[in-house]
UniProtKB/TrEMBL annotation:
This is Glutamine synthetase. Coiled coil: none annotated. Binds 2 Mg(2+) ions per subunit. It comes from Paenibacillus agilis. Keywords: ATP-binding, Cytoplasm, Ligase, Magnesium, Metal-binding, Nucleotide-binding, Phosphoprotein. Belongs to the glutamine synthetase family.
Amino acid sequence: MSVNRVLELMKEKAIEFVDFRFVDLSGRAHHISLPATEVEAETFVNGVAFDGSSIPGFRGIEESDMVMMPDTNSCYVDPFTSHATLIIMCNIHTPDGERYDRDPRSIAEKAEQFLQTAGVGTAAYFAPESEFFIFDDVRYETSMNSSSFFVDSEEAAWNTNRKEEGGNLGFKIPTKGGYVPVAPVDTQQDLRSEICRLLQDAGLRVERHHHEVATAGQGEINFRFDTLRKTADNLLTYKYIVHNTARQFGKVATFMPKPLFGDNGSGMHVHQSIFDGDTPLFYEKGGYANLSEMALHYIGGILHHAPALLAITNPSTNSFKRLVPGYEAPVNLVFSKGNRSAAIRIPVAAVTPKGCRIEFRTPDSTANPYLAFAAMLMAGLDGIKRKLDPRALGYGPFDKNIYELSDAEKHEIRSVPGTMEEALAALEADHEFLLDGGVFSKDFINNYINFKRGEAKSVAIRIHPQEYSLYFDC
C-alpha cells in the first residue's frame, strides 16, 4: 500500500488517530498514537521518535533516541478504540537511518532475504496454531512473604460442585476432555466467533476455530499461512484481538503455555514450507509422506538445532512446564507422518502438493514470532545446505505412539531440553547457523541470552509454595 493510499484510507475511515507500533525482544507490542491531523506524507519518511532505553533489552540511556519507520503494508483499523484509530506496524531505525539490528522485525526480513540469496527458494510460508485459555478470573502475587496464583472458569472441571447464584448448571469440561464439544459444554462459541469476525475485518483469512483439549476454556483459532514476516505481523494482530475481545466479554485471555497444573498446556504448532514462485519445494510424490529430499533436509536442520532453537521458540520458564511427557507435549525430537507425539509431524490428511508442509509442534506463544520463525527458517536452511538427513541422524521416521514406548525404547530418542537454562546453554554453544547472511548478529545473540537468563534467575531465586509442602516441617 502506498503512502498516498494510507492517507486516503485515513480520510475514507474518518481516522482520528494513527497508532504506530513496534515489537520488543519478548514479542510484546508497544505504541505511540498521533492525531491524524499530525500525520502527513513526511511522517512516513521521517518516522516517529521514541525512547529505546525504556524498552527492556534495547538501548542504554546514553543512546536512547530511536525511530519507528512505518510499514504501510501493515495497516488495519483498531476495532476496540472509541476514537477511530489506524494501526501501523513499524521497523526500528537508529537516528542515522540504519536498521536497528536488535529489531525483531528487521531480523525476520533479513531471514527472508537470506532464503532468496541462498538460492533455495523465493518465499518461506508459515502458519502458527496459537492456542490460548480464556478465564473468568485471574489473580496472582509474588512478594517477600507471599506467593500464589488463582484462575477460574465457568467451564472448569473443579467447578462441578460450586454453589452459584441461580444454581450450578453443570456441563463442565473434564480434565483433558475439552476437544471440540458442542454447547452447552462449550460456552465460548460466540466469543471465538466474534474474534474471528474482527480478525477478518483486520485482513486475516480465518480458516476455523474450536475448543481445545484442556478444561477451563482452552481454544484455538487458525488463520491462513503467509510469508514469514507477514505471518509474524498477523500473529501480533491475532493476540491483540484475542486479548481485547475476551476483555469486552468480561473475561481474560492468556497465551501462557502452562497456566494449569495437571492438564494440557497451550502450544504454537508452526506449519512451514518453501516455494519457488508457485512451485512447492517440499513436495515429491512417492517420498515418505510425499516429502522431497529438500523437506527432509529442512527437518534434519530443525531437529539437529532444536535444543538451541527452543531458547527462541520456547523462551520462558513456563514453557518447560508444558514440555513434559503425558500431556500431548511434543518433547521427542523425531519426525513422523500424522503423529502428534513427535516434535515434527507431517500432515497427510487432505493435503495437496501446494499444501505439503512440515509442522514443528514444540514452540509456544511466549515466543517472539519474528525471531522464532526466522530461527526455524535458518535451522532448516542449514539442514538443506549441509544435507542433514534426519533418517541417518536417528530422528525417524517414527510412526508409533512414543508415549506408550518402554523406558528402554524411549532412551534411544533424543528429547528437548528440560529447562530454560539448558536451552539457553544450547543456544550459547550452537548459534553459528543463525549468523549466516548476517540475519542474526553475535551482539543480538549475546544480548538475548543475557536478557533471558535474567528472567530465568528471577524465577529461580523465588520461593515456591510447593517448597512449603515439601520442607516446612523439616
